[in-house]
């Protein structure tokens, strides 16, 4: 667990840690649409590069999308493990 601001992962770092085969931006965009917001993909990418500094709503949607992806992967891992026993 990071204990200082400098050790806190960036949005870009969190997204990269998931690998190349994800559509986090698309998932975040869908979360935003569900909340009644409309943002272009370029605006979302800009927020990623600025580490959320320019738009807290987009940052929250990105973090929700990353959390959902990690949960989905953990659930699939647990399911594979259960089936292998």
Number of helices: 4
Describe the sheet with the most strands.
none
Q: How much is the average pLDDT?
A: 92
N- to C-terminal separation? 32 Å
Helix % is 55-70%
Radius of gyration over C-alpha positions, nearest whole angstrom: 15 Å
Low-pLDDT sequence parts = none
According to DSSP, the number of beta strands is: 0
Q: What percentage of the residues does DSSP assign to strands (E)? A: under 5%
Order of helices and strands: HHHH
Net shape: globular
Question: Which class of secondary structure composition applies to the elements?
Answer: mainly alpha
What is the structure about, briefly put?
By secondary structure, the protein is mostly helical.
Tell me what you see in this structure:
With 85 residues, this protein is mostly helical. Helices cover 65% and strands 0% of the residues. The protein is globular and about 50 Å long.
Task: State the main characteristics.
85 residues, mainly alpha, 4 helices, 65% helix
Write the layout of secondary structure elements.
Blueprint: H1 11-16, H2 24-34, H3 41-49, H4 56-84
